[in-house]
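As promised in the previous annual report, we have extended the structural survey to additional targets. Below is the entry for N-acetylmuramoyl-L-alanine amidase domain-containing protein.
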Amino acid sequence: MSKSERLTRREFLQLSGAVGALAGTARIGLIPAREPTVHEQSDISEILVVNERVSEILSYYTPLSFDEQGNLLFETQDEYQRTITLSTSLLPTEFSKHVKEKVESVELLVVHYDAGLRYLLDGTERNARNTVNGLNGNDPDGDGRGASVQWCVDGFPISRNENREGGYGILQTQYASGAADKPYRGKHVYIGIDLASGEKDINILETVELFKNLGIKSNLENLVKQGRYLQSGLNKYSVGFEQIGIYFDPGFPDTDQPTRRQVANALSLTTACMRQFSLTPWDIVGHHEIQQKSDPGYYYMGTFRFLIGVAALKGLVPQDLVFDDIDGKYRELRYFEKVAETVRAINRYGRYGLWEDYIGYKKFIDSLNDWYEIRRGNR
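The corresponding structure token record, generated without further manual editing, is:
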């Protein structure tokens, strides 16, 4: 990021506190009313308007869970069409073969991409196994162990894929620790300082400031305030996943974007982690939000947090994990506004308006306001 971009971003951050305060009185099409009654979940599912892209992503959503050992589980059909539960395939990284140290706590889920093109030179689509190979080869310490995350995600349906044809959907890439709430730590958040100046990495500080100014609560703030992210490193307080791809932000919205199936797989994994570790959408952070990295990008994380909110409204993830940190009436609407404000704050490459179109933001917000009106009228 250039110096001029830094100044522009900081200028916004200085003003965003005032913007956030004004947002409470300038909601999109929202008319103050009495506290609405609570209706069945199906009511809102029928009223919400999502575009074709969001609808297809949610159609691929797969409920996942963890066993007591910490293995990731999914349901599938056996040869007799009976529902069975299986663990996802395991392909441990070199790091995980040597390091068996549990995290101190899981306070963040860090989202990455593997910085590789989707297709190999022969036209074959890359999968999570290719990502693991890349992690093993990323060895800045020279100890032969490489980098490591807990899972790798690709654009194929979630399956065991014993014959290794196609992909995996989600590949578990570290051994289960035997304690589902404390998996073995990875090595995926490496840089903690500005390499040029030797000072603390500015990205994590700016993200904390942005969240604070917008009234967003996140475990990230305490990790920074208490200095734990420097003392022990974020790897001891986080889990993470890699996914296929590169240049999500530079290519947005037309090129180099992850497939809808891949986004759905990442969403399925993320919501399982939210339930398992009691994380909110603001504890789900892009690598670029905490380090001087490009992955996965601001538009990706804006879309991802939007999808988490829609998934909650459609009953795919507990609403208390998504909306409970927001006080007052119309907490659902305020959540989506905060998502939009984080994207608008950066406006990477000046494409915020394209992002709204990409996810169908305005029509969705209109339909959410319609739902509030219906609930108010039914009192």
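Strands lie at 64-66, 72-77, 83-87, 108-111, 151-153, 170-172, 238-243, 284-286. The CA atoms of residues 35 and 367 lie 18 Å apart. These points will be discussed at the next consortium meeting with the crystallography subgroup.
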